[in-house]
Amino acid sequence: MGEQLQGMLRKVTLDAIAPINFSEQRELLHYCLDRDLNLHDELAERNLCYDDLCYRYNPEVATTSNRDRPFSPVPFHGIPVVSFFSGAGGLDLGFEMAGFEHLACLEINPTFCQTLSKNRPDWKVYDRDICHREATLTLLQETIGIQAPFEGIFIGGPPCQPFSLAANQRFSKQGENFKRVGFDRADLGNLLFDFIFYIQYLQPRAFLIENVTGLKTIDGGKQLTIALNSLADSGYAIAPPTVLNAAEFGIPQQRERLFVVGFRGTKSFQFPSRDRDRIPCYNALTRSLDGVANHITRKHKAASILRYAELKYGERDRLGRVDRLHPNLPSKTIIAGGSLGGGRSHLHPVVPRTLSVRESARLQTFPDEFVFCGSVARQFTQVGNAVPPLLAAKLASEIYRQY
Question: By residue range, what is the domain housing residue 28?
Fold first, then answer.
């Protein structure tokens, strides 16, 4: 942590502010277990809630008045941007902050489309499967009015499951559930090439592709190289595919993702410089949560809280496979959860419970007024799949500045 940040630190002793001490908490938890009582109901009977609980080990937490890395929005300049695989709009929000005009968002998931339309009713959101190239080209050309060469930007992050390392740590390579088959998975792996097709056909002034780091290493990088060479043959100068860690750009989260940026012509994009300091995750979790949307905390059982409460900073509960965040460091990567199962999150650094959707969204730098639609599980999916809007804004502003 840099000297400037260290100079702003103040110390908070967590034990001093807990309404119930650890011994009383253990008695309560065992009381619920012995009588098979619902912990949530028992807390309510005692005028307590999960946020009144505590960990056994609570070293001092460093907080700072500089809660977030500042970013000055770029004045509106009106360069149009078309978003593919828009999801909850992390990239879109960043380009909005950087002064771009949204021409269209293409997203196949109706719930994600609902989120986009609810938060930005003036954006044109299309529930669209871009695998259907002829129909999508008709939409882009005739409905939206795009003609080649397009003097705007194409942005998108093709679904990453076939290339994801995290998703496949759960499965055996020999098992039928093993997903890291990359480009061989027809329904998702080839979406990158669909995106490239639209870039080549409509010739946007620039493009940005975001994906998991596994896209760079699957099959030794062979097919990614083929894809980028085809774009180079179509007249694009492409910066070397670069892995960025969000924590190095003012986001309170360790999150590595691969970015590819290309400019039509001969000028090559230069990625923005990294910040020296790191933003602690606890800074994003200290603001009041009163009245904000998407802040529904899980009703954990007493047995779970007993385990969680024994964890030290950074340790994992092996049964629940959740980690206690270290408050003085950027959080671990916010994950999306399974497409069929429920979403899950990390453990709050100072309260023995999992993070809510809103808390996870804060670690992703979504504004509190941005509301996520759908079930809680699908809200986690939207947050976990998104590019942090602040990181997107920094990339977008550099694209505008350089080209």
Answer: 3-66+297-355
Please indicate, yes or no, if residue 366 is contained in any of the structural domains.
no
Instruction: Record the pTM.
Output: 0.88
Please name the helix (run of DSSP H) or strand (run of DSSP E) that holds residue 245, with its range, or none.
strand 242-245
Pairing assessment for the beta strands 80-84 and 150-156 based on DSSP bridges: parallel
- Distance between CA atoms of 205 and 81, rounded to whole angstroms? 10
Structure tokens at 138: 């008709």
Dihedral sign of CA atoms 305, 306, 307, 312 in order: positive
Residues 228 and 119 in one domain: yes
Compute the distance between CA of residue 253 and CA of residue 280 in angstroms, rounded to an integer: 8
CB contact at 8 A, 334 and 383:
yes
Do residues 216 and 315 both lie within one domain?
no
Angstrom distance (rounded) from CA 110 to CA 127: 6
Please say whether the beta carbons of 111 and 373 come within 8 A: yes
Shared domain for 230 and 313, answered yes or no, is: no
**Number of domains the chain contains:** 2
- Residue 78's Cβ-count burial label (10 Å; 0-12, 13-18, 19+) is exposed
State residue 71's pLDDT score. Answer: 80
Q: 248 and 326 share a domain?
A: no
| Residue labelled with tokens 């980028």 | 228
Residues 318 and 197 in one domain: no
3-state SS, one letter per residue, for 155-224: EECCCCHHHCHHHHCCCCCCCCCCCCCHHHCCCCCCHHHHHHHHHHHHCEEEEEEEECCHHHHHHHHHHH
- Predicted confidence (pLDDT) per residue in 307-361, tens digit: 999 999 999 999 989 999 999 999 999 988 654 445 568 999 999 999 999 999 9
Q: Which listed residue (54, 160, 281, 373) is catalytic?
A: 160
Amino acid at 85: F
End-to-end, the C-alpha distance of the chain in Å comes to 33
Is 59 within a domain? yes
Name the one residue in this structure whose structure tokens are 């180079």. Answer: 232
Q: Which two three-digit tokens encode residue 1?
A: 């942590």
Look up 113 and say whether it is catalytic.
no
**Does 261 share its domain with 338?**
no
Amino acid (1-letter code) at residue 145: G
Query: What's the one-letter identity of residue 135?
Result: A
Flag whether 72 is in a domain: no
CB 322 within 8 A of CB 347: yes
SS3 154: strand
Instruction: Tell me the torsion sign for CA atoms 138, 139, 140, 141.
Output: positive
